[in-house]
C-alpha cells in the first residue's frame, strides 16, 4: 500500500560525505561573486529582507490581526532599505490561514503601510512555501519585463484562525436572507437542531487523505528508521544554534514591534528554548500515541509572524542607490504523492535545482532548509545519501550526497525560530543572504517541503557589493 514504507529498509543509514562534481558550466564558480546564467538574461537581486519577531501563537500578538503583522513587515522593509514608496511597482504576498475580512491581505497591508495606492498587490497561497512562491513570482514578473521592483513576503497568524458555523447552519442563514414572510422565517427557525451549533474547525491536515502532517511525519520516521533519540538530538541542535545566533546578533532581520496595550517592545523570537536531552526525553508522543516519536519538542510549533523582502534588477538597484545582498539565480518546484511522500520535497527539489545550475553538493556554502519536524529533516538527509532512493525515486544512477552539516541551518531553523507558514520562505532567503556574507560563501541553497506533497529548491549567490 505504501511502497516507500515497505521498501525503506533498503535505504542506507547514517550520513556520509559525498564528492560532488560540477556537471555543467551553467554557472561558473569564481570568487568575484558576479556570475550569471548568460549575457542576455537579467540579473535579479535580493536587496534585503525583514520580519517581525516570530512568536508562539497565543502570546504577545494574540489580540492582533494578521493584517497588523503584515503591515508592520511592509513598513519595516521600507524603513530599513529607505526606498520611496513610488519605486515599488508590485507586491506579492503570501498567507495560508486566510482572514476573510482581508482576503487580499497583500493589498490591504500595503495600503495600511503607506505604500502607493497605485501599486497593485496580490495574495498567494502555497502552504509552507507561500513566500517562496511570492519571491519566485516576483522573479518571473521581472524576468518578463513587466516590473523591475517588487516586494515579496508573507504572514501567518495562528492566534486567531477562521472558525465557521457548520455547513447546515450556514445553509439556514443563507436561506434566512431570502425568507420574506413570517411563516417562512418560523419554518427555518423550527428546523434548527443542536447539531447545527457544532463549529466547522480548520485542521492542519491533507484534504486528499485526511491525515495530519504529524501522523505523516511519524510514518516517515518509521520508514527511514529514525529514532526518537536522533530526532531529539536534532531538535536540540536547532534550538542551541538559534540561541547562539540570537545572542550574537546574527538574527538581524528581526524588526522591533510595539504591540498596542503591552509594556515594552517585542524584539526577539520567543520560541527558542535550549532544553536538556533528559527534558526532551520525558515528552509524550504528540500524534501517534503511545508509540510515535514526534513530540512537541521535535516538531515546529504554531507561530505568528510576517516577513517582507525587496526583489529587483541589479541595474535598478544601482539606480536607486541600493546595495543588494545576493543574486536570485534559479528555482524549481516539485510535487509527490501526498500520502506516501508528503514531507520529502527537499530530497526531490535539491538534486533538481543543483542540476539546473550545474552545481554539486560541495559547491553550496550555505544551506537553509525548512524544519517542519526533526524526523522530516533526517529523512530527507538519509534520502539524499541513498543510492537506492536515487535509483528508485529520483531516476539517478547514484545518490546526491550528504550536505556538510556545519553549513546546514547554522542559525537554527523552523523548529526553534518558529514557522509562520507563509512567512518562512522569506526568512529562509534573508538568512541565506546574510549567512553568505557573514560566512564568506558564494552559493546558498534553500529548500522546503509543503502540504500537498510539494516542495521548493532555490539557489542564491552572494553579490559583490553585499554588506550586512
Structure explained in plain terms:
This protein has 468 residues and is of the alpha/beta class. 33% of the residues lie in helices and 15% in strands. It has 15 helices and ten strands. It has helices at 3-6, 66-81, 105-112, 130-143, 167-178, 182-190, 213-223, 228-247, 277-281, 314-319, 345-357, 374-384, 387-394, 414-417, 424-438; strands at residues 44-51, 55-56, 90-94, 121-124, 149-156, 303-313, 326-335, 366-369, 443-450, 454-462. Strands 1, 2, 3, 4, 5, 6, 7, 8, 9 and 10 form a ten-stranded mixed sheet that branches. Residues 1-10 and 12-26 have low confidence and may be disordered.
List the helices and strands and how they pair.
Layout lengths: L2 H4 L37 E8 L3 E2 L9 H16 L8 E5 L10 H8 L8 E4 L5 H14 L5 E8 L10 H12 L3 H9 L22 H11 L4 H20 L29 H5 L21 E11 H6 L6 E10 L9 H13 L8 E4 L4 H11 L2 H8 L19 H4 L6 H15 L4 E8 L3 E9 L6
Number of helices: 15
Unreliable sequence segments: 1-10, 12-26
Radius of gyration: 23 Å
User: Total number of β-strand segments?
Assistant: 10
SS strand fraction: 5-15%
* Main pleated sheet: 10 strands, mixed
Query: In angstroms, what separates the terminal alpha carbons?
Result: 51 Å
Structural category: alpha/beta
Q: Secondary-structure element order, as H and E?
A: HEEHEHEHEHHHHHEHEHEHHHHEE
What gross morphology would you assign?
A: globular
GO molecular function, one term: acetyl-CoA C-acyltransferase activity
Domain Thiolase N-terminal: 44-315
Keywords: Acyltransferase, Cytoplasm, Fatty acid metabolism, Lipid metabolism, Mitochondrion, Transferase
Organism: Odynerus spinipes
Amino acid at each position: 500500500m505504501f511502497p516507500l514504507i515497505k521498501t525503506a529498509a533498503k535505504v542506507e543509514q547514517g550520513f556520509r560525505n559525498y564528492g560532488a562534481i560540477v556537471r555543467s558550466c551553467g554557472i561558473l564558480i569564481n570568487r568575484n561573486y558576479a556570475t550569471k546564467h548568460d549575457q542576455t538574461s537579467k540579473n535579479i537581486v535580493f536587496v534585503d529582507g525583514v520580519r517581525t519577531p516570530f512568536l508562539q501563537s497565543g502570546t504577545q500578538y494574540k489580540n492582533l490581526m494578521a493584517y497588523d503583522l503584515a503591515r508592520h513587515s511592509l513598513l519595516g522593509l521600507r524603513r530599513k532599505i529607505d526606498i520611496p514608496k513610488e519605486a515599488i511597482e508590485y507586491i506579492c504576498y503570501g498567507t495560508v490561514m486566510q482572514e476573510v475580512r482581508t482576503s487580499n491581505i497583500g493589498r490591504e497591508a500595503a495600503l495600511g503601510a503607506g505604500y502607493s495606492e497605485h501599486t497593485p498587490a496580490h495574495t498567494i497561497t502555497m502552504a509552507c512555501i507561500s513566500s517562496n512562491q511570492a519571491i519566485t513570482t516576483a522573479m518571473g514578473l521581472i524576468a518578463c519585463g513587466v516590473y523591475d521592483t517588487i516586494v515579496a513576503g508573507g504572514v501567518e497568524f495562528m492566534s486567531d484562525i477562521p472558525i465557521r458555523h457548520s455547513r447546515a447552519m450556514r445553509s439556514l442563514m443563507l436561506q434566512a436572507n431570502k425568507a420574506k414572510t413570517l411563516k417562512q422565517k418560523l419554518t427555518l427557525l423550527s428546523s434548527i437542531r443542536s447539531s447545527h451549533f457544532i463549529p466547522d474547525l480548520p485542521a492542519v491536515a491533507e484534504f486528499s487523505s485526511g491525515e495530519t502532517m504529524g501522523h505523516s511525519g511519524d510514518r516517515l520516521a518509521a520508514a527511514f528508521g529514525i529514532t526518537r533519540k536522533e530526532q531529539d538530538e536534532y531538535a536540540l541542535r536547532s534550538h542551541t544554534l538559534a540561541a547562539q545566533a540570537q545572542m550574537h546578533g546574527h538574527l538581524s532581520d528581526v524588526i522591533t514591534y510595539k504591540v498596542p496595550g503591552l509594556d515594552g517592545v517585542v524584539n526577539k523570537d520567543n520560541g527558542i528554548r535550549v532544553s536538556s536531552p533528559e527534558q526532551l526525553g520525558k515528552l509524550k508522543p504528540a500524534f501517534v500515541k503511545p508509540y510515535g516519536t514526534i513530540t512537541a519538542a521535535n516538531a515546529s510549533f504554531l507561530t505568528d509572524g510576517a516577513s517582507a523582502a525587496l526583489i529587483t534588477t541589479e541595474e535598478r538597484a544601482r539606480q536607486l542607490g541600493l546595495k543588494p545582498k545576493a543574486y536570485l539565480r534559479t528555482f524549481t518546484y516539485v510535487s509527490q504523492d501526498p500520502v506516501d511522500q508528503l514531507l520529502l520535497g527537499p530530497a526531490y527539489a535539491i538534486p533538481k535545482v543543483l542540476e539546473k545550475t550545474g552545481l554539486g553538493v560541495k559547491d553550496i556554502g550555505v544551506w537553509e532548509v525548512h524544519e517542519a519536524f526533526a524526523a522530516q529533516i533526517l529523512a530527507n538527509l538519509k534520502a539524499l545519501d541513498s543510492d537506492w532512493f536515487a535509483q528508485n525515486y529520483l531516476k539517478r544512477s547514484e545518490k546526491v550526497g550528504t550536505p556538510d552539516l556545519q553549513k546546514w541551518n547554522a542559525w537554527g531553523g523552523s523548529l526553534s525560530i518558529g514557522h509562520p507558514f507563509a512567512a518562512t520562505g522569506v526568512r529562509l532567503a534573508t538568512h541565506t543572504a546574510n549567512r553568505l556574507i557573514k560566512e564568506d560563501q558564494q552559493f546558498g541553497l534553500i529548500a522546503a517541503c509543503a502540504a500537498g506533497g510539494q516542495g521548493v529548491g532555490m539557489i542564491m549567490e552572494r553579490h559583490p557589493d553585499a554588506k550586512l
